[in-house]
Amino acid sequence: MRSGILPHRDANPAWSLRALVLVLLVLSVGATASGPVAGPSSGKALSGGVFTGRAGDAPSAPLAGPMVTGVEFKIQVQNGVVLMCKLTLKGTNFQQGCVVNINGQRAPKILYHESTEVLAKGGAKLAKMLPKHTSVNLTVVNPDGQTSNPYPFTRP
């Protein structure tokens, strides 16, 4: 009896067909791409996001980051004392646990409402971070690290 990969010439032809199907199956499973795919002629990696999937599949779109589209500001002052100060940021793609930054500094208290609204609170501390008639940049940083573009805001 012969040993080896090739069957004996008297072997059943169906066995050869099964072996061919098995080899093709193993090769197709091994044909997955992970990471940047090399360009066809240059051999250099293409720029862009990481793609994981079967060869020939189109990469999925990257997750969209947070975007601030509007701001509502409320403050309540009595006898020169700030009783309440809150900043409501409206937008898209906010995630639970996101952080609101004012000129790069974290707001005192952050409440996530939904993917389109997050609230920054903090009374006098927040009011101090938002001086009257001074423009500040507001950003939202999601837990996955994606950061919104700065949104300019000037407290009236």
Question: In a nutshell, what does this entry contain?
Answer:
This protein is of the alpha+beta class and 156 residues long. It contains 2 helices and 10 strands, in the order H-E-E-E-E-E-E-E-E-H-E-E.
Largest sheet: 4 strands, antiparallel
Query: What's the helix count?
Result: 2
* CATH architecture term of the largest domain: Sandwich
Per DSSP E runs of 2 or more residues, the count of β-strands stands at 10
Secondary-structure-derived class: alpha+beta
Intertermini distance: 93 Å
The quaternary organization reads as single chain
Q: pLDDT below 50 for ≥5 consecutive residues: which ranges?
A: 31-52
- How many domains comprise the coordinates? 2
- Tell me roughly what share of residues is in helical segments: 10-25%
Written account of the structure:
There is one protein chain. The chain is an alpha+beta fold and 156 residues long. The protein has two domains: 13-54, no CATH class; 67-154, Immunoglobulin-like (Sandwich), CATH 2.60.40.10. It has two helices and ten strands; from the N terminus they run αββββββββαββ. It has helices at residues 13-29, 123-129; strands at residues 32-34, 52-54, 67-78, 81-92, 99-102, 105-106, 109-114, 117-121, 135-141, 151-154. A four-stranded antiparallel beta sheet has the order 3-4-8-7. It has a four-stranded antiparallel beta sheet with strand order 6-5-9-10, with no helix packed on it. The termini are far apart.
